[in-house]
Amino acid sequence: MDGTEGNAEQPAERSHRSSVSSVGAREVQLKPKHQPYKLGRQWPELLLRFTDAPDDDVATDEPSLQFRRNVFFPKRRELQIHDEEVLRLLYEEAKGNVLAARYPCDLEDCEALGALVCRVQLGPYQPGQPTACTLREKLDSFLPAHLCKRGHRLFAALRGRAAKAGTDEQGLLNAYRKVKEVVSSDSEWEASLRTHYRAYLLKCHELPFYGCAFFHGEVDKPTQGFLHRGGRKPVTVAINLEGVHVIDSREKHVLLGLRFQELSWDHTSPEEEESVLWLEFDGHNEGTPVNRLLKVYSKQAELMSSLIEYCIELNQAAEPAAPQESLTGPAGGPGSSAPPTQRPQLRRQSSVVCSRIQHLSTIDYVEEGEQIKRVKPKRTTSFFGRQLSMGQGSYTVVQPSESLEQS
């Protein structure tokens, strides 16, 4: 598990917080009032409640205490940090998420980030050192593992993904060569690594899911083939101060990305059925505006719903302070998104951070009594009342037409 429930005292004032995690990638961010020892004693109960782990794994699983980035710490506050050790901690965590593909990145971005890792670990670039062969031996220290596997580019090309010519290590070496060094007034190279830590974080800030909390779940696959086979696919739900992203755990790309202004949500936890996080958003079906509903099956649905609600509360509380901060620094609340010019990868064709709605099975529906019924593409009303209702760009439901044809 990775998430936070309820309130926390001044959540955005600290860049880091303690978290408890286990070998099975189940994580919990702690509040100031939590006592790690007591939480460790309750760990088996938490696993049974919020995960599908087998009983044998629950009995043998041991949690570990880790120091991690505060989910509620806004990106704009990171830009104000000058302490090199704090920047190093933020850099190490971001690097770990990139290398583990928890932050899906396009190849160009992976090479740019990997080049900064080369600079931190190997020092300034020197012509002829290192060579592409040298980088190949440690490639998984600079690039995500799925990009280091042989044949990755061939499979990517066959599956229609964008792939550049050349080897991974050569592209990394070219990016390493372009890393800029800061020269002081006496023309000596700056000894501090602070500049490169900050450059790495700034590059990660372009990712819409940076600094998120991770949850595990499943979504329905679209029916395919003559036999209309469906099934489910495992996903990671990433939630931060900007919005919600549903990421394909196997393919390492985004399936759905929504800002809080673009969604309504709720969760259900019936006793004899699976817990579900419901996400509602605008869409089109054959050119007709509809409301779409996505079901995310997860025992952590309650945690996700609580975190979404709390992030929205933080954003709304920070809105009045935004005009004052614009006089001394970057404008915008904790959830303000970066200008489009700072996110070039979002405009790339087939970018891994672009939504792939066609890979999801969603429901077009109309509210009738207390039942959700599938309908042919018509204008519908919103089923959920939980949404960000303040400010410009708020989610607005598609109004119902006079007659709805039910399928």
UniProtKB/TrEMBL annotation:
Chief location: membrane
Residue span of region Disordered: 1-34, 321-350
GO cellular component labels: cytosol; plasma membrane
Alphabetized UniProt keyword annotations: Cell membrane, Cytoplasm, Membrane
Gene3D superfamilies given in the database record: 1.20.80.10, Phosphatidylinositol 3-kinase Catalytic Subunit, Chain A, domain 1, Pleckstrin-homology domain (PH domain)/Phosphotyrosine-binding domain (PTB)
CDD domains reported in the protein's UniProt record: FERM_B-lobe (cd14473)
Record-level GO BP terms: negative regulation of canonical Wnt signaling pathway
Compartment annotation: Cell membrane; Cytoplasm, Cytosol
Residue stretches making up the FERM domain: 1-319
Function: Promotes the cell surface stability of iRhom1/RHBDF1 and iRhom2/RHBDF2 and prevents their degradation via the endolysosomal pathway. By acting on iRhoms, involved in ADAM17-mediated shedding of TNF, amphiregulin/AREG, HBEGF and TGFA from the cell surface. Negatively regulates Wnt signaling, possibly by antagonizing the recruitment of AXIN1 to LRP6.
Name of the molecule in the record: FERM domain-containing protein 8
Organism: Rhinolophus ferrumequinum (Greater horseshoe bat)
Lineage: Eukaryota, Metazoa, Chordata, Craniata, Vertebrata
